[in-house]
Known about the structure:
Blueprint: H1 2-19, E1 27-36, E2 39-40, E3 43-50, E4 57-62, E5 65-72, E6 74-81, E7 83-92, E8 95-102, E9 112-116, E10 120-122, E11 125-127
Parallel strand pairs: 1-10, 1-11
Antiparallel strand pairs: 1-2, 1-5, 3-4, 3-6, 4-5, 6-9, 7-8
Amino acid sequence: MKTHRIDVSIFLVGLILTVAGCSDGNVSVVEGAITVDDKPVKKGTVSFTSLDGGMPASADIGEGKYRADTVPRGRVVVHLNAFELTGKKYMELGIEYPEEKNVIPPEYANGITLNVGEPKMIHDFHLKSK
């Protein structure tokens, strides 16, 4: 009976490690540049959502560059978010807030499909607002 418990314990540990995604073979490093109308996106986030069942990943955008270390392999949808201050203010419920605008053109709001297949990829996003 004790042998059976050990076999079940070993199986459960293996299953937990597999489900937790301890294998690096299913993720990639993706990095590159992000511009809008040839200008670098100063600050924002980029997120990768798997269409094939992998875990999502995200990274910060800084001075037009990003690097995401755990992007799931396969087809992903990439969402870009970047806001900057307009210099204007607006009132809401009697409180004044700084106004921000989204620098990512609206035509990219539903995301960009990307196929991630290599262990390390360089992919630039050169977006156009016109």
